[in-house]
């Protein structure tokens, strides 16, 4: 403690942040060890079978594989190089991706806020939806890592590298095409703001900056044509031109509880907004009508094993009565109001919302893992207003995350 006191202020802050990040690294390794001896959980068995095929040199696909197997190929390559074959090693590689993801997020906080934010990094690392997946054999953390890395490269104005990283993110998870478009859009507004006429006049330079994105869009369009859809295996579970609202409602439902400390702190501001703009209540009533017209839970994967999959239990219950629908809609309406009054760091960051809409409406299956990117960017973009609330949020996230990993590890439930 004496040593720390005599370090200059800025250096002391950096020193303490390094200590905290090293402690966080130990937490992530401890989480890996906690899961390392557990049986394969949920879709882990499916993903590991595909990895094992590639590890043996068998390039055939699992019959129900619905994503481009970029993650599986990369993990299989890691297993091949290390001479390993088991799930323990595959989980260790996934944990490595997770550590890199947290590091990139930490670096992004410096780009967005002007200096590194430990509190936001901890909020992200312990985020209850994401933390349980850090050591698991799932595609989603690698997909998130590549989107965050692409955004970091965009802010650094390394546009070609950002575009190529975005292409890699699509190979990790196909629905990252929406976030690939977000990176492209952010490149354009970083260079030209809202002056699209100037961008058109300067189109040669713009093309030089964005050629990797145009290559990605062309390759993705070719993939859709050749594959006859976005899903590789069972195309019936993901029709190409089927627009759904289920994920939007579920994301808004979860938002109220995932950001509970911050949302409670915003209640006075929210109440003032409602009093000053009562017409917003009319908008919510119209949204309620739309909800009753558009809400349905019809995907076969959302109607199985309600005693294990927590989301399925909720989605199936909502279908049972009008009372359940109203109870489900109430957090949706509150979340939408809270988002309306939540300030972000820059005006450009509000484009997160339409791109979230774009990323979720094409998907029939209601799946919380689809929310990793928008929720991570929301944590990054949100304006910090009360330090005390931010640290309470870190504790809240950690407690929720620990409860979830216990329930998941002991196969009591899955997200």
How would you summarize the topology of this molecule?
Layout: H1 2-5, H2 9-36, H3 44-55, H4 70-82, H5 87-113, H6 118-125, H7 140-155, H8 159-172, H9 177-192, H10 196-201, H11 203-227, H12 246-258, H13 260-265, H14 267-276, H15 279-294, H16 310-318, H17 322-341, H18 352-360, H19 372-381, H20 387-409
Helix pairs in contact: 2-5, 3-4, 4-5, 5-6, 5-7, 6-20, 7-8, 7-9, 8-9, 8-11, 9-11, 9-18, 12-17, 15-17
Summarize the structure.
This protein is mainly alpha-helical and 415 residues long. It has helices at residues 2-5, 9-36, 44-55, 70-82, 87-113, 118-125, 140-155, 159-172, 177-192, 196-201, 203-227, 246-258, 260-265, 267-276, 279-294, 310-318, 322-341, 352-360, 372-381, 387-409.
Q: Can you describe what's shown?
A:
Helix 3 packs across helix 4, helix 7 packs antiparallel against helix 8 and helix 12 crosses helix 17. The protein is globular and about 65 Å long. The N terminus is likely disordered. The protein contains 20 helices and no strands. Helix content is 69%, strand content 0%. The protein is mainly alpha-helical and 415 residues long. It has a domain of 143 residues. The two termini are 42 Å apart.
């Amino acid at each position: 403690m004496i040593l720390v006191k005599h370090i200059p202020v800025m250096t002391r802050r950096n020193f303490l942040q390094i200590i905290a990040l090293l402690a966080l690294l130990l937490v992530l390794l401890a989480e890996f060890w906690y899961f390392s001896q557990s049986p394969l959980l949920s879709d882990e068995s499916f993903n590991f079978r595909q990895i094992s095929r590639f590890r043996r040199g068998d390039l055939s696909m699992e019959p129900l594989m619905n994503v481009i197997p970029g993650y599986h190929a990369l993990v299989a390559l890691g297993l091949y190089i290390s001479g390993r074959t088991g799930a323990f090693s595959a989980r260790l590689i996934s944990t490595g991706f997770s550590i890199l993801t947290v590091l990139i997020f930490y670096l992004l906080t410096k780009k967005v806020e002007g200096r590194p934010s430990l509190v936001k990094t901890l909020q992200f690392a312990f985020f209850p939806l994401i933390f349980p997946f850090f050591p698991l054999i799932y595609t989603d953390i690698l997909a998130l890592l590549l989107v965050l890395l692409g955004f970091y490269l965009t802010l650094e104005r390394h546009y070609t590298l950002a575009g190529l990283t975005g292409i890699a993110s699509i190979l990790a998870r196909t629905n990252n095409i929406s976030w690939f478009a977000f990176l492209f859009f952010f490149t354009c507004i970083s260079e030209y703001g809202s002056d699209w006429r100037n961008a058109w006049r300067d189109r040669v330079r713009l093309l030089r900056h964005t050629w990797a994105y145009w290559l990605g869009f062309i390759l993705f369009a070719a993939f859709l044509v050749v594959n006859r859809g976005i899903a590789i295996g069972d195309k019936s579970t993901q029709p190409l031109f089927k627009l759904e609202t289920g994920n939007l409602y579920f994301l808004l439902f979860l938002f109220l509880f995932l950001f509970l400390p911050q949302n409670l702190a915003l209640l006075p501001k929210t109440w003032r907004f409602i009093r000053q703009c009562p017409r917003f209540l009319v908008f919510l009533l119209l949204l309620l009508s739309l909800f009753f017209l558009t809400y349905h839970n019809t995907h076969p994967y959302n109607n199985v094993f309600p005693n294990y999959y927590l989301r399925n239990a909720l989605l199936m219950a909502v279908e049972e009565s009008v009372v359940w629908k109203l109870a489900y809609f109430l957090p949706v309406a509150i979340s939408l109001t809270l988002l309306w009054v939540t300030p972000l760091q820059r005006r450009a960051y509000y484009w997160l919302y339409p791109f979230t809409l774009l990323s979720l409406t094409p998907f029939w299956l209601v799946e919380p893992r689809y929310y990793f990117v928008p929720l991570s960017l929301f944590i990054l973009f949100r304006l910090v207003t009360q330090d005390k609330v931010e640290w309470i949020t870190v504790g809240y996230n950690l407690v929720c995350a620990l409860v979830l990993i216990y329930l998941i590890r002991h196969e009591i439930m899955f997200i």
